[in-house]
Amino acid sequence: MSKRTDGRTAGVTYQAVDQSYFEQRQLQRHAGLFSLWMMGVGAVIAGEYSGWNIGFSQGGFGGLLLAALIIGFMYVCLCCSIGEMSAALPHTGGAYSFSRTALGPWGGFTTGLAENIEFVLAPAANMFFMSSYLAAIFGTPDSALPLWWAGGYAVMLGLSLRGLELSMRVVIYITVAAIAVLLFFFVVAIPHLDFARYALNIAAGPQGSALLPEGNGPWLPFGFTGVMLSLPFAVYMFLAVEQLPLTAEEAKNPKRDMPRALILSILTLAALALGVLFFSASIPHGAHAMGTSGEPLLDGFRTIFGDGWAKLLASVAVLGLAASFFAGSFASGRNIYSLSRAGYLPTALSVTNPRTKTPNIALAAGSGLALFMLLLVWFLGGRHNVAFMGGFLVSMIVFAGMVSYVMQSIAFLRLRTTYAAIERPFISPFGRFGAYATIFICVVTLAYQFFDPLYRWAAIAAAVWYAVGLAYFGFYRRHRLVLSPEEEFAVSGGMRGQPAE
Questions:
Q1: Domains, the chain
Q2: Where does the Amino acid permease/ SLC12A domain lie (predicted)?
Q3: Is residue 42 a contact partner of residue 172, using CB atoms and an 8 Å limit?
């Protein structure tokens, strides 16, 4: 072991490893622009299927619409900032890599841990929402939901054993199918639209959201507070698109394709989000019913086609949730892989399959933690209130995501100053303004999570997880780091550590 004392490594210790260490942790390049674009959309598209709709009960149609526009703008700014950093630092560490270079080891782990919480829980939440759809389709009781979760993770891990290229191809196919299902829903909903009657059928009541049978209610039934309380659920329509840079060392040309894929992904998701918001609220039963639905797209199909056809269409709609579940699980594995390769997590987790170059151990570790969290929330109260469990998971994910975005935006600002001379194949058109705007919106969203009496405990639970992780690094792992490509780039001031292309 060698103790480092310069400014870039103060307070941490690096283990000496030989070349075989990295030979056991190799990845394979295979992803082009279209694959990356569909991976970016696939990582998020489950958020158009479930979870977002709880915002109707918090802010009404107008409140959730304004929240979606605010959050959509934030994600455009964030993706442009991340696009600039990912082209300049094309490591699989993604957000951890950016912050490690700009903010040192503590900054790197703080950001990587926030992403870890987000990427472990996001596919878990998608699996939870998918199980709700599957239970509705096959008529299984709520008590059987944990069996769906175990089966889903078993299928995902089985697919990963066949290699990442096949896994990514499957995600791309089901993402394209999921987009097609949403577009089909938009078209068949058109004859049933009555915006004023159904989208504006929420009023403020003594118990919160009250139904207006004839509609024509206020756009903002809960005022500006409703807009703010809707922000976390608007986030779910875009959350996890930022995971794309985790595939940088598996992309054929990350410096060129990563920024393009990020921007194409967020623009595609913004269009789909606005469509889902408008068409779901404007058909019979409307925004009030959608605000408490566990499977909003299935309920939309039920309204249009009745139960029989709705179940058939919903079985196709499950593809959207499956796309995000698979893409999110792979992102969780890559986050664990990159933190483990650099020694922030136990190094055994980053060993890859010698034939397929897939980080199966990291995938299995992320999946095991996700299943544990699902079961923990389930037994602590989710089994008695399935709808509340969905909102609880979303709130935990949003907390971790907001922390990660703030850290990445700070890293962007620091990199503009301290690494002004490094090559930047892509420059964010929003520049520093975009980073400051992202920080402001994230801080506001975080603050209102703690004002929400229904879901503040979810934010507190995520904060406790975060504190435990930081303590683990501070007392143990910071003395066992490894000079991975991300670490070497940071330690050398950008002179070494660029991944081989």
A1: 2-138+198-491 (1.20.1740.10)
A2: 38-477
A3: yes
Q: In the prediction, which pLDDT does 497 show?
A: 55
β pairing state of 2-3 and 13-14: antiparallel
pLDDT in tens, 92-139: 778 899 999 999 999 999 999 999 999 999 999 889 988 887 887 888
The residue among 327, 35, 46, 38 whose CA lies nearest residue 181 is: 46
Kindly give, in sequence order, each residue whose CB lies less than 8 Å from that of residue 85, ignoring residues fewer than 6 positions away.
98, 245, 408, 411, 412, 415
Q: What is the dihedral of CA 248, 348, 148, 332, to 10 degrees?
A: -30
Q: What predicted TM-score, i.e. pTM, was given to this entire model?
A: 0.89
Which pairs from 199-203 meet CB under 8 Å and 24+ separation? 199/61, 199/278, 199/281, 199/282, 199/286, 199/287, 200/60, 200/61, 200/62, 200/287, 201/286, 201/287, 201/288, 202/56, 202/57, 202/60, 202/61, 202/287, 202/288, 202/291
Closest CA to 221 of 208, 235, 231: 208
Give the span between the Cα atoms of 143 and 389, in whole angstroms. Answer: 13
Centre a 10 Å sphere on the Cβ of residue 376 and count the other Cβ atoms it contains. Answer: 11
Q: At what angle do helices 33-42 and 296-341 cross, to 10 degrees?
A: 120
Sole residue written with tokens 């921007």: 263
Comparing CA positions, the residue from 119, 120, 143 lying closest to residue 131 is 143
* 15 neighbors 1 (Cβ within 8 angstroms): yes
Q: Which are the contacts of 198, defined by CB distance < 8 A and separation ≥ 6?
A: 215, 281, 282, 283, 284, 285, 286, 287
Could you read off the pLDDT of 191-219 as tens digits, one per residue? Answer: 999 999 999 999 988 777 888 999 999 99
Q: CA–CA separation, 147 vs 264, rounded Å?
A: 36
Do residues 422 and 494 lie in contact, with contact meaning Cβ atoms separated by under 8 Å? Answer: yes
d(CA 66, CA 59): 9
Identify the top-confidence range among 39-43, 316-320, 430-434, 479-483. Answer: 430-434
For residue 476, the one-letter residue type is: Y
Task: Please report, for residues 29, 93, 147, 432, the alpha-carbon distance to residue 165 in angstroms, rounded to integers and kept in the order given.
Answer: 9, 19, 28, 36
Q: How far is CA 27 from the centre of its chain?
A: 22
CA distance 330 to 339: 14
Percentage of the chain beyond pLDDT 70 is: 93
HSE-CB at 260 with a 13 A cutoff on CA atoms is 12
Strand partners, 481: 14
Q: Has residue 441 got a pLDDT over 50?
A: yes
C-beta neighbour count of 106 within 10 angstroms: 17
